[in-house]
Automatic annotation (TrEMBL), chain A:
Alphabetical UniProt keywords: Kinase, Transferase
Protein name: Putative nucleotide-binding protein (Sugar kinase/HSP70/actin superfamily)
Gene3D superfamilies membership: 3.40.50.11900
Gene Ontology MF terms: kinase activity
Biological classification of the source: Bacteria, Bacillati, Bacillota, Clostridia, Thermosediminibacterales
Origin species: Thermosediminibacter litoriperuensis
From TrEMBL, chain B:
Keywords linked to the UniProt accession: Kinase, Transferase
Domain DUF2229: 2-213
Protein name in the entry: Putative nucleotide-binding protein (Sugar kinase/HSP70/actin superfamily)
Record field: transmembrane: none
UniProt organism field: Thermosediminibacter litoriperuensis
GO MF annotation terms: kinase activity
Amino acid sequence: MRKVSFPYVGNATITFQKLMKALGNDVVLPKRPTEETLSLGTKYAPEFACLPFKIVLGTYIEALEAGADTLVSTGGVGPCRAGLYTTLHEKILKSLGYEFEMITLEPPGRHLRDLVASIKKLVNRKLSIADYFRLGRFVWKELQLLDKAEKLSHKIRPLEVKKGETTRTYKKCAELIAKAQNYRDLVEIEREIELLYEKIEKKDVDPIKIGIVGEIYVVIEPAANLEIEEMLGDLGVYAERSMFLASYTFYNAVMDLFRMPGERDVKKLAAPYFKEMCGGHGRESVGNAILFAKRGFDGVIQLSPFTCIPEIVAKSILPKVCAEYDIGFLPVTLDEQTGKEGLRTRVEAFVDLLAAKRKKRKGDVVYGTLPGY
Amino acid sequence: MKIGIPRALAYYAYYPFVNTFFEKLGLEVVVSDPTSKEIMDAGVEDAVADACVPIKLFHGHVRNLLGRVDYVFVPRLVSVNREATFCPKFLGLPDMVACSITNLNNMLEVRIDIGKRKRELFLTCLRVGRKFRKGFFTAYNAYLKALMSLKNYTHQFLQGGIPPLGVLTQKKSADIKLGVVGYPYMLYDPYLSLDLIKKLIGMGTYVITPEMVPEKVKQKYAGKLKKTLFWTFSNSVLRTAFHFLETGCVDGIIHVTAFGCGPDFIVDKIMELEARDRNIPYLTIALDEHTGQEGLNTRLEAFVDMLRRKRKVKEAAML
Ligand code: SF4
Ligand code: SF4
C-alpha cells in the first residue's frame, strides 16, 4: 500500500487524511509545523525561499522520516513561482537521498489529463460512481464546516467574557469534525457547533474590525502567521480573513475547470490600482482591502511571506488605496526570524491607533498608515 | 516632444528597439543617466523596502527623468513569446511606480503582451504611434527600423561582444571560459554589478552570457524540467546554464542575482544542484545596494584562480 503524505493545511489535514484513506492509501499524517519543522526547512531550502516553501519542505522531510513513500502536493499554474514549488522540492529532497514519488495535482483547467493520471495513482481501491459522489459530498461538507467553525470563533472571540473560552470551544469543534465518519454525522455536528458557540457568554460591544489579506498559505495557516487571529481576538478585535480553505479549493478546482475568473468583484475593485493579474494573491489582497473598507472595517493587515513577489507589488499599492478609502493599514512580513512578541507589540500599537481614530472619526484626521518595515 | 526612458530592467534587453522606435517616430528620446549613487538612493527611498534592487533602481531612474521630459515610458511587460510571462514585478510595474512616486503624472504606460500572435508587436507599436498622432506609415517605418536595430544588437552579442558594456570582442585565446548567467539588468548595469563582467574579462577570461547563446541552442534545453518556468528571463538563464553544463563548453559558472529575488531562489538552486551533479564549479553572487567592491573582487579572483588550478591539473593528467 502506498504511504501517502501531504503538506499540513490546518484542521483540513484530517479531512485529507480521510479522503486518502477512503481511496485506499495508507497515510502518514503530517504534523503541525513547529519551530523544528521550520528550521529543517530553512536548513535545506535556498536562503531566499519564501516562508511557505520552507515550512512545506520541513513538513515533507518529517513525513519522509516517518516512512512516507509518496508525497502529494498541489501544483498551481500562474506567473507566481508556486507552480515550480514541487519541482524544486522534489529536487532538493532527492539530493538529500530520500526515495519517494511526488504526485502533483495541477488545477484541472489546463492540465486535465495530468490531473486524471495523478489521481489514478492515488486511487488504490475499487470505488463506484456512487462512492465517489458520497466521498466528494462528505469532503466538501467537512471543509465547509471547518471554515464555519473558524469563522464563528473569530466573530465571537472579541466578545467573550471569559478569556480563552472561544479557543477552547473551537478546539472542541475541530475534534468533533475530525471524528465524523459520514455525511449525516456532519449535519449533526453542524447544529452542535452552533449551539456550542451560542453558549459562550458574550459582551455587547462593537469591536474594532480588522480585515486580513495576503498570501494564502500564511493567511490560512495559523502556524505560519504566529496565530495572529487569536492574538487579535484576545485584544478584543474582530478579525476576518479574506480567504478560507473551502472557498479556495472550490475556486481552484471548479472555476478553473470552466475558466471562470473567480472572485470577480474583488478583481474588479482592484482593477483601477492593479491592472494586471500577476500571480499569487496580490491582486486579491488589494481588492479585498477595498471590500473591507466598504464594509466599514477599521483596518487592514496584510500578511506576506518575505520575498513573496505578488505581495510586494500589492504592498506598494496598498498604502495609497487604504489612504484613499480611509482605513488603517499594517503590513506584516513573515519569515523565520519574525518573533511573536515583536509582532504582538506592532499589532497592539496598530489596534490602539485604530481605536483612537475611531474616537476622532468626526474630526476627520487621516493618519491611517503605520510605516512598515 | 521629449520621451524619457528609464535605464533599468527591460531596458537592457530591448533598448535598441525602444530607442529607435521613438526616435523614428520623431520624438526626442531622453534616456535616464547611467546608474549612480544618487539614483540608487532615490530608488531606495521611493520603493517598498523589501523590493529587490532592480525594482528600486527602476524607481530611481524614473525620478531621474522627472521634470525634464514630457512622458516617462513605463512598460508593462506581459509576454514576448508563447510559453512564458515575466516576473510579477514586471507585470505590476506601472501600478507600483504610480503608487510609490507621488509626483509622477506623465507616465506613458505601454502594455506589451505580444506572445500570442506575431503581429501583436506591430499593433502595439501602431497604438503607441497613434497616441502621438503619427500616421500608419510613420509607425510602420519606425517599427521596421526598430526591429533592425534590435537584430543588430542581438547579432553583436552572438559575435562575442557585449554592446551595453561597450565590449566589442573578446580574446578567443583566453585560457578560461566562464559562463556568467543572470538577468540582463543585473549583468549589464555596471554600477549595480560593480563592473563584474569587465573585471572578469580583465582577469583574462572569456565571458559568455545568456544573450551570447543563440536562441535556437537554448530552445534545445526547454524540455529539461518537468515544467517550464514561468518567466522569460529565467528560462533564458536556466537554459543557458543547461547548455553550459551539458556541453561542458565553460570551465565554471557564475550566477549573478539580486538579494531577495523571487524567481531566482528556484533558478539558483536548480542550477546549483545540476552543477554539483556534473562537477562543474558554480558560484552565486547576490547583489544589493550595500554590496562592496572589495569582497566581490576577492571572491571573483579566488574563483578564477581555482578554475586555473583545476585546468592545470587536468592538463597535466592528459599529458
Ligand atoms: S505567492 Fe508568495 S509565498 Fe506564495 S508561493 Fe508565491 S512567492 Fe511564495
Ligand atoms: S526577477 Fe528577481 S530581480 Fe527581477 S524584478 Fe523579479 S524579483 Fe526582482
